[in-house]
Write a structure and sequence with these properties.
This protein has three domains: about 250 residues, Rossmann fold (3-Layer(aba) Sandwich), CATH 3.40.50.1360; about 60 residues, no CATH class; about 230 residues, LmbE-like (Rossmann fold), CATH 3.40.50. The chain has 22 helices and 18 strands. The longest helix has 21 residues. The protein binds fructose -6-phosphate. The site of fructose -6-phosphate (F6R) has 14 residues, from loops.
Length: about 650
């Protein structure tokens, strides 16, 4: 077993699955395999044929291959590539086309010959699609077949763009994209309505013909579909499950993406486990859910019949276990997220002193804060703590153009009324830049600036509702975001030093942050890495020894109950405040009424569902009944996550 593997236990799993502590380790393993094949083939004077994927997942792998080319002389002169897919209707120079993506992420940085790279043609005429797809298949055969195929996986279980319904025999063809896939791409295309409806993709059968397959996956969003692909029956409702039919396929994934595999989620069901306090909590909460009983009503039989007999032996009886777990869960609940002054804090999640605390809420983009912990922020402010909200990035990439037009019209009108030529000139210039960029062009600096200002206004207005003074709302505008675009962000020293400056200035007693377990290329995850690096730089500062870091799960998800160390219940009135706070982020409303109708969800009701469902789980476990709960996990930077 390699050192960087968390475990390679494969019971229950129908595909060889290697779990790595992070994406970087997994990519270095796959890059080493690719490099070794290329070198062997180069020495023999033979070509290597690679099947490539796009999307966020393989970006680190490509960066590692580029590094090997630059630093270790890995040559791609004799490499032929075939990409899995391309959006139908996009030309190769469209910023979101997969051809352009490959040029930017790999081809332009290594010595690949352009004529050796193949990406399906997105502009082929409708009546020529069939022939063009056959020609693609023929080109793969003529090259000798694919030696190594790299795959990502979509939340629908797609590989390439083989959406649910694609069977194992499918070949290269034109397909219709699933609505979830289009929603996932909406951010890149600045709105779901701009995402193409069709794509050309290699078929599942084409993929299965490759001699070796590596599927990569990072982040918790992929965990459910990954577990179904690896552990479920092969089915066309999860096309990735057909990879079970290949005899040389490896899934290389990070721990977050492995989160729903039985060996990670319910390890006591597949073998002996070490009954650490975390494992006991996880298993007993799971048991209560499974047998649908509150904690205090679990019986010896419930434990014995569900693979937990050894735990029972270790702890004596269900009675002891139940009481322990009830107390542990009970003690996570507090209405005092900053600690309750002058109270015994021995069984409270947060310490009583010092009071008031300097609380720092770190929000990757505006709205993540109120969405995930608006109720807690309001509580902290109301309870007299010194609350600062810091927005790591401006979030300007997520503002639709019509909102900018409205803002510049306002600037123009004010300018005209007050005869201010500077304002008028600026508004005109931004308008011209908007007209010039077209639907898919990149935003200029000025446009991004105005978009950032719009989000600042929304963030301030939301903070005001939560009673956080305007002077305590900070905008870091981290450079990695300002200078990048989705999937292409790279963070560095300038980001870390902006974070260090903030921390050293505020010297917080508690920090609320998010990003652990997210897709490593996401804004949320990058912001967390910047925080982690900044904390390391501050390691010798005095304040850090008295600072607690509370993790919120991040937009769109909530901690499982057994992971929560602090549960902040919200009354119906407080919950109302939070939702009103979310409402202030008007540019973040779903842009398309039809999407909203179909998914039935917008940020505010998704946030409510999550907080309500945590409260319901506490209720089901036999604890008090609340309207909603926001959950936090205490982060111990020294412990593996
Ligand atoms: C892209 C492709 C897709 C992606 C999948 C995951 O060429 O074939 O199957 O691998 O949609 O996308 P990301 O990596 O962006 O999560």
């Amino acid at each position: 077993m390699a050192d960087n593997l968390i475990s390679s236990y494969t019971q229950e799993e129908r595909i060889k699955t290697l779990i790595y502590s992070d994406a970087a380790d997994a990519c270095s393993h796959v890059a080493t395999e690719i490099a070794s094949l290329i070198r062997t083939r180069n020495e023999a004077g033979k070509a290597t044929v690679l099947g490539l994927a796009t999307g966020s997942t393989p970006v680190r792998l490509y960066r590692e291959l580029i590094r090997m080319h630059r630093e270790e002389g890995l040559s791609f002169q004799n490499v032929i590539t075939f990409n899995l897919d391309e959006y139908y209707g996009l030309s190769g120079d469209h910023p979101e086309s997969y051809r352009r993506f490959m040029q930017d992420q790999l081809f332009d940085h290594v010595d690949l010959k352009l004529e050796n790279t193949h990406v399906p043609d997105g502009l082929v005429e409708r009546e020529d699609v069939f022939t063009s797809c056959q020609t693609y298949e023929e080109a793969i055969r003529a090259a000798g077949g694919i030696d190594i195929q790299i795959l990502g996986i979509g939340r629908t279980g797609h590989i390439g763009f083989n959406e649910p319904g694609s069977d194992a025999q499918t070949r290269t063809r034109l397909v219709t994209l699933d609505s979830l896939t289009r929603r996932d791409a909406a951010r890149d295309f600045l709105g779901e309505e701009n995402v193409p409806r069709h794509a050309i993709t290699m078929g599942v059968g084409t993929i299965l013909d490759a001699r070796k397959l590596y599927l990569l996956a990072w982040g918790e969003a992929k965990a459910p579909v990954l577990a179904e692909s690896v552990e479920g029956e092969p089915t066309d409702s999860i096309p990735a499950s057909f990879l079970q039919q290949h005899d040389d396929c490896e899934f290389c994934i990070d721990l977050a993406a492995a989160g729903h595999l039985t060996r990670v989620r319910y390890p006591w069901l597949v073998g002996p486990v070490e009954w650490t306090p975390e494992m006991v909590r996880k298993s007993v909460v799971w048991l209560a859910g499974k047998v649908e009983k509150p904690l205090l009503k679990l019986t010896d039989e419930d434990y014995a019949e569900n693979g937990m007999a050894d735990l029972l032996t270790e702890k004596g009886s269900a009675y002891n276990l139940n009481i322990d777990l009830f107390n542990i869960t009970q003690h996570t609940i507090t209405g005092w997220p900053g600690g309750k002054p002058n109270a015994d804090d021995s069984s409270r999640p947060e310490r009583a002193n010092p009071f008031p605390k300097r609380s720092l809420i770190l929000s990757p983009e505006p709205m993540d804060d109120v969405y995930c912990l608006g109720g807690t922020m309001h509580r902290l402010a109301n309870q007299g703590h010194d609350v600062t909200v810091a927005y790591a990035t401006s979030g300007n990439l997520a503002v639709p153009d019509p909102d900018v037009r409205r803002a510049i019209e306002l600037i123009m009108e004010v300018g005209q009324e007050r005869e201010n030529q500077d304002d008028i000139g600026f508004a005109r210039s931004v308008e011209e830049q908007l007209n010039a960029k077209g639907q898919f062009g990149e935003d200029t600096r000025d446009i991004r600036h105005v978009k950032g200002l719009i989000r600042r206004g929304e963030a301030r207005s939301s903070a005001r509702l939560l009673e956080i003074p305007a002077g305590q709302v900070r905008f870091l505008d981290l450079p990695f975001y300002e200078e990048g675009r989705y999937r292409r962000f790279k963070w560095g020293d300038a980001d870390v030093s902006a974070m260090v400056n903030l921390l050293e200035e505020l010297k917080p007693h508690q920090i609320f942050a998010t990003g652990l377990g997210h897709d490593p290329l996401s804004v949320t995850s990058i912001c967390f890495e910047v925080l982690r690096a900044a904390l390391n730089e501050c390691a010798n500062s005095e304040w850090i020894s008295d600072c607690r870091i509370w993790l919120y799960r991040g937009p769109g998800a909530e901690w499982d109950t057994h992971e929560i160390d602090m549960a902040v219940p919200l009354s119906p009135d407080e919950f109302e405040y939070k939702i009103r706070g979310i409402y202030q982020h008007q540019t973040q409303r779903s842009q398309s009424p039809s999407t909203l109708r179909k998914s039935g969800s917008d940020s505010w009701n998704l946030a409510s569902q999550l907080n309500r469902s945590t409260a319901e789980t506490y209720d089901d476990l036999g604890l008090a009944e609340y309207e909603a709960i926001e959950g936090f996990k205490l982060w111990n930077a020294d412990k593996p996550e």
